[in-house]
What we know:
By secondary structure, the chain is of the alpha/beta class. It has helices at 8-13, 23-26, 74-87, 105-115, 130-139, 153-160, 165-177, 196-205, 220-224, 226-229, 233-250, 310-316, 318-321, 339-342, 347-354, 370-382, 398-406, and strands at 43-47, 91-95, 118-123, 143-148, 182-188, 210-215, 255-258, 279-282, 288-289. The chain has 17 helices and 9 strands. A 9-stranded mixed beta sheet has the order 7-6-5-4-3-2-1-8-9. Strand 1, helix 3 and strand 2 form a beta-alpha-beta unit. Helix 3 (74-87) packs parallel to helix 4 (105-115). It is globular, with a radius of gyration of 21 Å. Bound molecules: iron/sulfur cluster (2 copies).
Amino acid sequence: MAWHSTSAHEQAATVNDSTPIPTSAATHGRPDGTLPTVAPPLWLLAELTYRCPLHCVFCYNPTNYAAHKNELTTAQWIAALQQARALGAAQLGFSGGEPLLRDDLETLVAHARKLGFYTNLITSGIGLTDTRLDALQAAGLDHIQLSFQDSTQELNDFLSSTRTFDLKKRVAASIRSHGFPMVLNCVLHRYNLPHVDKIIDMALDMGAEYLELANTQYYGWAHANRAQLMPTADQLREAESVVNQYRQRIGNRCTIYFVVPDYFETRPKRCMNGWGSVFLGIAPDGAALPCHTARSLPGLTFPNVIDTPLREIWYDSDAFNRFRGHSWMKEPCRSCDERFNDLGGCRCQAYLLTGDPANADPVCDKSPEHERVIQVVRAAAERTDDRTTEHPVLFRSDANSRRFIAQPGQPATEEPLRNGPGVRI
Ligand code: SF4
Ligand code: SF4
């Protein structure tokens, strides 16, 4: 399962208290003094594979993932984990694609646990048999986040283009019976926001302690399907009100995360708590990323853990320093008194919407490009069709990914490529 988190901030901040940061890492600063002191990474996302049995229309994996078929070996992953832990990383997410497709997952979890990581498995649940749950538990896995696409079989199975809803329910029961904390994730958008009450009910029935209602952020396949997935402001308001009613009603029984998507704000979020600040991602082929969608940005070469030490990547590489801090900013951010709060927002969003990753995130109403965001939101409000009319979506599939590769440089603001597996909503 690709990592879909609207609470990256919280996740990065909730490093397990019992997991000490290595002393050498905590005291390491920039060696040459030309840039401000750089803190060590705290949160490591290990994207073990881009392979996945599902075909989610909102997947955050790169649309050209089929161009990155290579995967690190077990030994290379272990070396990367050791280096990341030595740097100071303490919270580790295993994601993908579907990380369960790696049959060395248990080995990697065991090594990570021995190194002192707090380990999370971020999964669609497909392949999570009782046998593997036993093995992962024995390896010391701390936490599993299981994703659903909806509370109904029809929409869950449609959005993933698979018949997996019943299987996921069985997996949820197994996770619970093994004694793992029950943590569910559901990506929200135009088609399932009206079901938010049912999604919460489903999570409560399953004994969820945490439910992340991750409103779609528009990167990767979600961006390609933006016109179809974008909700209306009324849908969001209604869903947020429902969530708040549940929060009052259920108290501490389940913590529900719900963050309004960027397009409906007038200030951007401090993306990933700042570029090269706390988050370090490693793609299946070993590319090190300051944000899991950064691969979409032009003009950046991401160093690879196969041939470059992680310490060098984190502190000295151009890719990790390019948007660190605020000295890279252009106007209006450069002279804005809010620049230390949001650090200019999201570089990927700036690129996808304006064509220049160094621009202000156009979610900001001080951006001269803010009108682009308003137009998208307005189009969503004016759209009158629904699932009963013909409206194709683009499924994440190898074939569609190869089509993106065949048409590089397609302007992100144009209509997405079509021709999914023939299913329409
Ligand atoms: S297709 Fe779905 S389950 Fe697979 S990685 Fe993408 S979002 Fe996750
Ligand atoms: S202009 Fe830039 S720094 Fe100022 S609020 Fe907007 S995005 Fe943030």
